[in-house]
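step 3/5: co-fold with zinc ion
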Amino acid sequence: MRMDRTQELTAKYIINNYKEEELAKIIYEYGEERFSRQIARKICEQRKQKQIETTKQLVEIIESSIPKSKQNDGHPAKRTFQAIRIEVNNEIEPLFNTVMQSIESLKPGGRLCIITFHSLEDRAVKKAFIEAKGHCTCPKDLPYCVCNAKSLGKIITKKPISANQEEQEKNPRSKSAKLRIFEKL
Ligand SMILES: [Zn+2]
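step 4/5: write tokens
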């Protein structure tokens, strides 16, 4: 399953942080996996010892949670991966869509400034800004753009702005804060 970096990090977060019941519910409902409870239990047992970092680790957990006699229906990990992918998009999409709609409703020259307090939220904002900036996918040697790349404006903050040392000391919550700014064309 091909995922971009934002999706990958979100998937890792879900697998390593969601409660066992939440994982079981997602795997059952989105993956229609009969062994969802067993898989969720095993994920939670394993991650207590060591974070689940790779697809391979997760595949092994899933395979060992499903009885061998029930593994003849395609790849045993397929349903769980599908479920996680759906949950990843449920996590990212609302914020991504809100950012896109906010940019669209700005007046020309207007700026959207967003402060997030969680790295996954920051990733979703970054992703939306890149999307809104638009990117030409034409071959580099073409004299002009033929792919109709549409840009809604420009990203003012190449990197997110963080609170300085002084502010972080005064207000510890600001440590995780990241500010990104987009300017409408
Ligand atoms: Zn182009």
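step 5/5: annotate
The radius of gyration is 21 Å.
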